[in-house]
Amino acid sequence: MRYILLALAGLCLPVSSSTGSSLTAPQPESRLRLFHTHTGEHLDIVYKRAGAFIPEALDKLDHFLRDHRTGDVHHYDPRVFDLLKDLTASVGRAGAEIHIICGYRTPWSNEYLRTHSTGVAKNSLHMQAEAIDIRLPGIALAQFRNAALALGRGGVGYYPTSDFIHVDVGRVRRW
Hints:
It is globular and about 55 Å long. The chain has helices at 2-11, 55-64, 79-90, 107-116, 141-151; strands at 30-36, 42-49, 52-53, 97-102, 131-135, 155-159, 164-168, 173-174. It has five helices and eight strands. The longest helix has 12 residues, at 79-90.
């Protein structure tokens, strides 16, 4: 009987492969592919590995999403990157290149846009690096907006005449 109990107990122990890792699936890398419509820059980057954000990658993303009018860089809330990754996956385009219309905005740029266009909030989350304006070529804008709304992870703005949506990690709302 002792032999059977030891065998049963052994079934409960973690099993290792030849590489020394457990059988639990490794957490995948989180990757983004981005194209900035104002600077013409492309970025293909792994920003998270094994559930941990990669500081050097976050720095590159912050620079990529800088205010294209002033060159100022602000540290982005990394939840925005997870939102982008999950959003593309939700429309069946995981890994597709996202077109960035607007990332971070300095208060100066935000005020400039407010006085030269419509639909720019005085206290925009772009100034906190918690918002981003995007499109995904090959996906209808309304479908992209609906997918962002379904995620329920922040604000979603719909700008069909300008061909982009706004997503942010603030409170859940829509316009």
